[in-house]
Design brief:
Helix 1 packs across helix 5 (62-74). The chain has seven helices and no strands. The protein starts with a helix and ends with a helix. It is mostly helical.
């Protein structure tokens, strides 16, 4: 999927999840709502500054937004995924480290289980 489209889809998904209208985004970041609509649809080029202003106006961190772009490039984000990403961005550094530690341990455990299952065959 083209990057311009992926970015637009992520911006739109988060805007809708936060229940912001294009007009509200216009007032928050000072760009015309019809232009913002074209950016969300991936039909107009944008700048990194606009993208940053957009996700900051929605209360998102850079990390959360970039994760959403990666996820969106693979599949459409659903409401639950958007909420989890938004909630994660609100955690402090220690809480994020704890979540990352738990996930890494689960991945290691799953890998060991898969290796064990293969040896049983």
């Amino acid at each position: 999927m083209e990057l311009q489209i992926v970015i637009g889809k992520a911006l739109r998904a988060f805007r809708k999840q936060k229940k912001f209208t294009l007009e509200k985004m216009e007032s928050k970041i000072g760009k015309n709502s019809s232009y913002l609509s074209r950016v969300e649809r991936g039909v107009s080029n944008t700048t990194l500054d606009l993208i940053e202003n957009y996700y900051q106006a929605l209360g998102l961190s850079t990390e959360t937004f970039l994760s959403a772009i990666i996820t969106t490039s693979k599949h459409e984000l659903d409401e639950e995924e958007l909420k989890m990403m938004s909630d994660y961005s609100k955690l402090n550094k220690r809480e994020k480290e704890s979540v990352q530690f738990i996930i890494s341990r689960m991945i290691i455990a799953k890998g060991k289980q898969l290796n064990s299952d293969q040896h049983d065959l």
